[in-house]
């Protein structure tokens, strides 16, 4: 019976070690590097979705994510999630953009900073990809392919 408790813990330890490896290699280079880009699936008629990505600013100067473009939505906005003193979460646009400190990774993830896709004009089907363009204060714009994941699949990605 105890062996079943050890195996899942070992598997979790292995996954944690693998994710730490990814984190340490994400900041190589002297520019902004994006990884783990995904967006939640949205069916026909769904007005919104959210997109997530890890950004590492390997440069010597801070930068900011100031805008996002997505052709299949009326608007794409960088949002922050904040908890009030009474424990209620709220979302609001990140006025002025999202800070990307030099030599640091900034994670846009569920429950934190994220990209809201508002007024979707077509569904986002699981397994497809969606092209979003990230605009920065200093760096050149970056168009990324975001993997579309189902809500169930997305929930199983440890917050990514």
UniProtKB/TrEMBL annotation:
<dbReference type="InterPro" id="IPR058248">
    <property type="entry name" value="Lxx211020-like"/>
</dbReference>
<dbReference type="Pfam" id="PF04314">
    <property type="entry name" value="PCuAC"/>
</dbReference>
<protein>
    <submittedName>
        <fullName>Copper chaperone PCu(A)C</fullName>
    </submittedName>
</protein>
<dbReference type="InterPro" id="IPR007410">
    <property type="entry name" value="LpqE-like"/>
</dbReference>
<dbReference type="InterPro" id="IPR036182">
    <property type="entry name" value="PCuAC_sf"/>
</dbReference>
């Amino acid at each position: 019976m105890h062996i079943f408790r050890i195996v899942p813990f070992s598997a979790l330890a292995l996954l944690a070690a693998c994710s730490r490896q990814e984190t340490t290699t994400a900041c190589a280079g002297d520019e902004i590097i994006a990884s783990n880009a995904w967006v939640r699936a949205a069916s026909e008629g769904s007005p919104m979705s959210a997109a997530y990505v890890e950004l590492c600013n390997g440069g010597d100067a801070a930068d900011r994510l100031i805008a996002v473009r997505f052709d299949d939505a009326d608007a794409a906005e960088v949002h922050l999630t904040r908890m009030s003193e009474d424990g209620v979460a709220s979302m609001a646009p990140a006025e002025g953009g999202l800070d990307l400190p030099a030599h640091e990774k900034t994670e846009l993830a569920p429950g934190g900073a994220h990209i809201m896709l508002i007024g979707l004009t077509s569904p986002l089907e699981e397994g497809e990809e969606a092209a979003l363009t990230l605009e920065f204060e200093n760096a050149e714009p970056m168009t990324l392919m975001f993997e579309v994941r189902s809500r169930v699949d997305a929930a199983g990605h440890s917050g990514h």
